[in-house]
Amino acid sequence: xxxxxxxxxxxxxxxxxxxxxxxxxxxxxxxxxxxxxxxxxxxxxxxxxxxxxxxxxxxxxxxxxxxxxxxxxxxxxxxxxxxxxxxxxxxxxxxxxxxxxxxxxxxxxxxxxxxxxxxxxxxxxxxxxxxxxxxxxxxxxxxxxxxxxxxxxxxxxxxxxxxxxxxxxxxxxxxxxxxxxxxxxxxxxxxxxxxxxxxxxxxxxxxxxxxxxxxxxxxxxxxxxxxxxxxxxxxxxxxxxxxxxxxxxxxxxxxxxxxxxxxxxxxxxxxxxxxxxxxxxxxxxxxxxxxxxxxxxxxxxxxxxxxxxxxxxxxxxxxxxxxxxxxxxxxxxxxxxxxxxxxxxxxxxxxxxxxxxxxxxxxxxxxxxxxxxxxxxxxxxxxxxxxxxxxxxxxxxxxxxxxxxxxxxxxxxxxxxxxxxxxxxxxxxx
Amino acid sequence: xxxxxxxxxxxxxxxxxxxxxxxxxxxxxxxxxxxxxxxxxxxxxxxxxxxxxxxxxxxxxxxxxxxxxxxxxxxxxxxxxxxxxxxxxxxxxxxxxxxxxxxxxxxxxxxxxxxxxxxxxxxxxxxxxxxxxxxxxxxxxxxxxxxxxxxxxxxxxxxxxxxxxxxxxxxxxxxxxxxxxxxxxxxxxxxxxxxxxxxxxxxxxxxxxxxxxxxxxxxxxxxxxxxxxxxxxxxxxxxxxxxxxxxxxxxxxxxxxx
Lengths: 430, 258
Ligand SMILES: Cc1cc2nc3c(=O)[nH]c(=O)nc-3n(C[C@H](O)[C@H](O)[C@H](O)COP(=O)(O)OP(=O)(O)OC[C@H]3O[C@@H](n4cnc5c(N)ncnc54)[C@H](O)[C@@H]3O)c2cc1C
Fold this sequence. Notes:
The complex is a heterodimer of chains A (430) and B (258). Chain A is an alpha+beta fold. Chain A is built from 13 helices and 20 strands. Chain A has a domain at 178-396: FAD-linked oxidases, C-terminal domain (Vanillyl-alcohol Oxidase, Chain A, domain 3). Chain B has a single domain (2-253), classed as NAD(P)-binding Rossmann-like Domain (Rossmann fold). Chain B has helices spanning 22-33, 45-57, 76-86, 104-107, 111-139, 160-180, 213-222, 238-247, 250-253; strands at 2-4, 13-17, 37-42, 62-67, 93-96, 143-149, 186-192, 231-234. In chain B, strand 3 (37-42), helix 2 and strand 4 form a beta-alpha-beta unit. The chains are: A alpha+beta (430), B alpha/beta (258).
């Protein structure tokens, strides 16, 4: 099941435990019948396949080699970032970039070409992949490197180009397990733009939380954070498992407009009061949500929609203003709204989501048609601005939206392995 | 093959029979984190090599691999002595993980299937245990830790061949524990409940009772050097659970399809 919890179907699942079993599992599959899945942290339909079989990759999680001196890690695709960090951090290495949760697999992270708070300095994960092993349903075991067209298709390839068996990444060196930086409250989007442009010159990591429930004078306010890795001490690794977990689905009202408004107003005030320099362990900075297991259940049994778009640099901040305007107008509000400027570093991935410009990530409790209508309006703004949506967070992208956002979609389609498919791909491909 | 790492010299030296089992793999990761030196024994060479590389990356001091079909135990004594020699002449724990669930349904009429279940899970296992016991007794230290099953606590129509073999092994190991007591060496039969492994995949049954290999890895690893009773249940709640199952009146039990 995907993380958004919109569909609660269970799919037939085979578990891959050793790489030598993979060929047998793929052999003689009918067309469009199989899809690899990692830890299921994609929210929508890119990790489901109705009527097909899923391959659980999470038990294929061995480290194949770790070069302490050069910082090069080669591991099977099911290794979680959580486990990878436990091994590399004590040796003074970190992932070249990381998404907002460490409970994703290497293979899943490559298939979505994930980005992090350091996108403006590091680009996507795919920029740091040195090689990967891909098994095609025909039985060919390929070792792909940057420059190979199939490599470009597989980075951000949504699991459609075959089974990723292992990945080799170049890590980045750290001198300690803390980050230190600056927290600043802003009261308008233009202010955010100025803060971000300035901070990107000296800070490796930047991100903003934006209060998209407030209107009037509070419209467009938020909290901006910029940080760099701090010096020593090294060795303190994150707690491996969340201390708390949400045991069951919350009643659907838990995250509603009034609660979000109140939460956001409070969050703004608390964080504003904590403005100025801060120093924090990496787990709190990169993975705040990982402290609570299965937090997606807070949205209740109907689940929720995530929505993440990117607006090209040349359009400036105006489209984001229009989107926030549309959201507050409908009385929908998002809790975990995140705003960040992507940098210019290009990923090798054909379908990679990030591009230079502004990315806005939102979440909405699923209220059926009402929610879909709002998302449709956001789509119009994104499309008019020449932007695109992130498949990892999507459960409803239209074919038109996909084609307008991803000009390389046709080139990509030629690399899709005929045995592989996903609900997402069925919806957007021809 | 041996790979060498850089950890301290007080590393635990461990032999793992059946090292490609899902539970063994997770337990070895815990031991590796503490810098253990491991001898991994199993049938599939490539898999053992991959596991060894992973354990080295996770902190093992050294990892050796020996390819051996453990259902054949004729040479148990000599092979075990060889592995101990590879570990530098001393062993802290010998873990026995291998086993097959087999097909109880087929074993009703297919004698070969029945024999495979009994020989692998009991006869061969007993030989390896005996070989380990002899070495530990001479050493006057170290532990034999054999994985058995709660299936051995009451015969059930669905798996009595497997259950009988595991029951036999539990008693065998309990006896070894008695025999070793004066020497200072130890033996433990660990009765596992339901664990999510390829062995149990696709089987239904109360899934709330089923635990992940990860969750029992640490208690298993702790047995390498810690004291323990000759027979333990893992997770612990299987002791009262099996007490209840054994107490079930026949009239009731025979109407169930357990
Ligand atoms: C709290 C939270 C925060 C997040 N923050 C960010 C963020 O900051 N930046 C960002 O980019 N993303 C973010 N994400 C999204 C997440 O990083 C991606 O969805 C990631 O791909 C999930 O990995 P997974 O292992 O769960 O894969 P799944 O969701 O299970 O699968 C994702 C895709 O990978 C494919 N796949 C998985 N394994 C393989 C394999 N071995 N071979 C071939 N294909 C494979 C699947 O087919 C599917 O298309 C976040 C998600 C959550 C829940």
